Amino acid sequence: MQCVSERPYSFSGTIGRWASGILFDIMEVDGNAIRLGNRGQDGRGAGWSGANSFLWNCTASLIECDKPPTAQNWSYGSWSEFAGKGFWAESNNHVSPRSFYYLQLAQRLGKDVSQRAAVLDIGQEASSSPTVAVAQELTAEASKPKVTMYEWINQAAKRNPISTDAKGIKAEIVKGSGGWSVYPPLSATGLQIHNGWLMLGQKVAVGKRQSVPWWTGGVEAKALEQARDKLSVTRFVPGRVGAGLTDELDQVIDTMKSRNIVALEHNYALWYDRRRDDHERIRRMTGEVWPPFYELPFARSGKDTAWDGLSKYDLTKYNAWYWTRLRDFALLASLNKLVLIHQNYFQHNIIEAGAHYADFPWRSANNINNTGFNEPVNYAGDKRIFYAEQFYDLSNPVRKKYTSYTLKSAWIILRTHPTLFSSPVRSLQGPCILWSSGYKL
User: Fold this and answer.
1) d(Cα 1, Cα 96) in Å, to the nearest integer?
2) Distance CA 35, CA 30 (A)
3) Residue 186 pLDDT level (bands cut at 50, 70, 90)
4) pLDDT above 70 coverage of the chain, percent
5) Does the residue 167 lie in any domain?
6) What is the pLDDT of residues 59-112, one digit of tens each?
7) Is residue 197 a part of any domain in this protein?
8) How far is it, in rounded angstroms, from Cα 206 to Cα 198?
9) Taking Cα atoms as reference points, which of 142, 150, 191 lies closest to residue 420?
10) What residues have CB less than 8 Å from 247, skipping those under 6 apart?
11) Helices 249-258 and 320-335 sit at what angle, rounded to 10 degrees?
12) How far apart are CA 254 and CA 327, in angstroms?
């Protein structure tokens, strides 16, 4: 409700398969579209997306209101270039009331809700033949700057002030009883080697080891069912939590304990979004990424365009969400006498299928740090990648600098957790002779 978007990269509207019953109330998309229609192969083959959905007092460069089989979409009071065979009424006109949501709210509660209705006023006089007095008022008003949505939101505290007067509030101070009350001492849970045995606290670490997924996945029923056994710490689906989506860390711990999994082996994924699961090496035309997203260690720079259509990475800045999730999981693992095996690098990006390298953050085309790898990529047989020797080259000052920085940063973030086991690289196939000895932390 009441959203404004200025020159966005893509359209607004329904994106999921057969998304139904959605109200778009006072939406403005400047420079792009609002779509209720058939997405075809986009969005992982979403097909018909908007069904039995409703546009009310919306504005966009293009509004597509189409009619899916067995369903309908409605548009009232739209200002736009129009497309689609849905139901259209009062186009290029404002309809009253301003907000359909607050109309529904008043009907549902059976009372006036005008005092709680937060809607930016656009004025009521739209006549082409106003009285002289009204015309003078409108002329004076036109000389004033228009209140933007951003400014109006920032004025919310003035429209609806909240008292900060603490007079009469009783303060209660809770005193501790000494010792630890929530977390056990780290010495009771730490990972150590004793007489050749890997120990967790005073007991031998016994159980299974499980790896995290590093490609494939989906957000539909079948894909989620298949993903229930694929525990992940850094998988992310916006607005959705659960197995196969954004995993609840507590649930991951509970699942490990119930399945006798003593160690979770974590490495970053081959690529960020699911489009690359097709194993094509092509540059993506757009940044229309598909979830679930496997977050990567490095932050995006906001500059230029990487091979996946999003901005390039900055190897000197780190993805805070990724590292926070790893740190939090490492703490939970230590409290529950479980092990996190952290792999700093993933060999599959640099030796194997060429698609594994396509979106790799270290690839020169994907970062702003001038890592010096060949562009265009010299794929073996226009298919395979053999870049391990270059990647681990200690004599290259640029790559050595960023590798040293990466290892040091990972160590600083995760070093305090007693059940963390750190490994240089997952799926090592060589060459990496004495590689780790070349870096001093």
Assistant:
1) 15
2) 14
3) low
4) 91
5) no
6) 999 999 999 999 999 999 999 999 999 999 999 999 999 999 999 999 999 999
7) yes
8) 9
9) 191
10) 231, 232, 233, 235, 241
11) 40
12) 17
- DSSP E strand boundaries for 227-333: 235-236, 261-266, 293-294, 298-300, 313-318
Q: Determine the Cα angle at 387 with ends 383 and 389, to 5°.
A: 150
Neighbours of 146 (CB within 10 A): 8
DSSP 88-132: EESTTS--SSS-HHHHHHHHHHTS--TTT-------S---SS--H
Cα(373)–Cα(365) distance, rounded to whole angstroms?
A: 9
Question: What φ, ψ does residue 125 adopt, rounded to 5°?
Answer: -85, 110
CA–CA gap between residue 191 and residue 429 (Å, rounded)? 27
Same domain flag for 324 and 419:
yes
Separation of alpha carbons 238 and 245, rounded Å: 9
User: What is the Cα–Cα distance from 353 to 386, expressed in whole angstroms?
Assistant: 9
Q: Is 331 in the same domain as 291?
A: yes
Residues 64 and 140 in one domain: yes
The residue segments making up the domain with residue 252 are 190-438
Region 46-71: mean pLDDT is 95
Q: Span 188-192, mean pLDDT?
A: 68
Cβ-contact 300, 312 below 8 angstroms: yes
pLDDT digit string, tens, across residues 206-235: 999 999 999 988 888 888 888 888 999 999
Q: In 3D, which of 314, 327, 321, 324 has the Cα closest to residue 406?
A: 314
CB 44 within 8 A of CB 274: yes
The total of structural domains in the chain comes to 2
For 233-263, what is each residue's pLDDT tens digit?
999 999 999 999 999 999 999 999 999 999 9
Rounded to 10 degrees, what is the CA torsion of 288, 239, 268, 259? -140
Mean pLDDT of the chain: 87
Measured CA to CA, the distance from residue 351 to residue 64 in angstroms comes to 45
Question: What are 304's two structure tokens?
Answer: 């230029």
**pLDDT-above-90 percentage for the chain:** 55
